[in-house]
Design goal:
Shape: elongated
Radius of gyration: 26 Å
Oligomer: single chain
Helix content: 25-40%
Order of helices and strands: HEHEEEEEEEEEEEEHHHEHHHHHH
Number of domains: 3
Structural class: alpha+beta
Number of strands: 14
Length: about 325
């Protein structure tokens, strides 16, 4: 839709160059888009993009797909139409720059928002909420060659949360989560809305339903409080994210799991990467494992630095 509209605008003011020219395969190949210096750190991508145009009346160029966070594919497209000014007879390169992102898994029920920044294209924190592969026009340029930096930040769209006003409520709390060193009081409805596992537990003929409490003896009170903070306020702790990640997997809360993975990966260092890999393997945290390996593959965390750390005397 964007391309057709742009072509109509071009044709209203310009005249396309004749189509009868013959173009060699090498010229078509040299008219391209390149993406280099790609760095993917968890849910963030940075890269440099260059566009090379040759004397071809109309061409569409696609860069290779980039996977962000293991959950979406990101791609850039540039459509170029060469036109001629009837008065000055100057050749003009009309470039339309598009971006898109699309979920990689069909059963992914989370919603994502992409924030894009490119100073050279005069784009700053532009938000896109369509993750179905729709092409979004972000820039129009009349330069023969283009070069720009791009930063993409992928975020999970939080579900509308109406429970914040109940966070400090004590009168209506009707359920207790018992940890190894203390309890946290919550509302049944909030737990049921957050997790299908808890919904079945609270709605059936389970002991927890009758007693109004659930024993989580392997979990600390601090982690249960972190869970409550997320369910009511959508906040994450600065420490103890690993334990919260385990709860999210146990009770089937994919949005919380994704946010925990993003936070852990954003704080990776050569000192903690090996421990994080061991934690992911031991607890079968596939998404965390893939995200950590992406960081290693992208050299965000270098294997040489990890080796140097491991070889240090204790």
């Amino acid at each position: 839709m964007f391309v057709h509209g742009a072509k109509r605008r071009i044709l209203s003011r310009w005249k396309l160059l004749p189509r009868h020219h013959k173009f060699t395969a090498s010229r078509l190949k040299d008219s391209r888009i390149d993406i280099t210096d790609v760095v993917i750190n968890g849910n963030k991508l940075t890269a440099k993009v260059s566009v090379t145009n040759h004397h071809i009346p109309y061409v569409t160029k696609l860069c290779r797909e980039q996977v962000i966070g293991g959950v979406v594919s990101f791609q850039i497209k540039v459509v170029t139409a060469i036109t001629s000014d009837e008065h000055s007879r100057m050749t003009v390169y009309n470039n339309l720059v598009f971006v898109k992102f699309v979920k990689r898994r069909q059963n992914d029920e989370l919603n994502y928002v992409m924030k894009l920044t490119s100073p050279e294209l005069n784009v700053e924190d532009q938000r896109f909420t369509s993750d179905d592969g729709t092409w979004h026009l972000i820039n129009e340029s009349r330069r023969q060659q283009l070069a720009f930096d791009i930063t993409v930040l992928l975020e999970v769209v939080p579900r509308v949360n109406s429970f914040a006003c109940l966070y400090d409520d004590e009168e209506l709390t009707d359920f207790e989560m018992r940890g190894m060193d203390g309890s946290v009081h919550v509302h049944r409805a909030v737990l049921a809305a957050a997790s299908p596992v808890l919904r079945r537990m609270l709605g059936g003929v389970w002991r927890e339903t009758a007693e109004g409490c659930a024993d989580m003896s392997s979990t600390t009170r601090a982690t249960l409080q972190d869970l409550k903070n997320y369910l009511y306020l959508r906040t994450l702790p600065d420490t103890g994210v690993e334990e919260l990640l385990l709860l999210s997997a146990c009770y089937m809360m994919p949005e919380l799991e994704k946010r925990c993975v993003d936070k852990l990966v954003s704080n990776l260092t050569p000192q903690n990467t090996v421990e994080m890999i061991e934690f992911a393997a031991k607890n079968k945290m596939t998404q965390l494992m893939l995200a950590v390996l992406d960081c290693v593959q992208s050299s965000i965390v270098r294997v040489a630095d990890m080796r140097d750390y491991l070889q240090q005397p204790e």
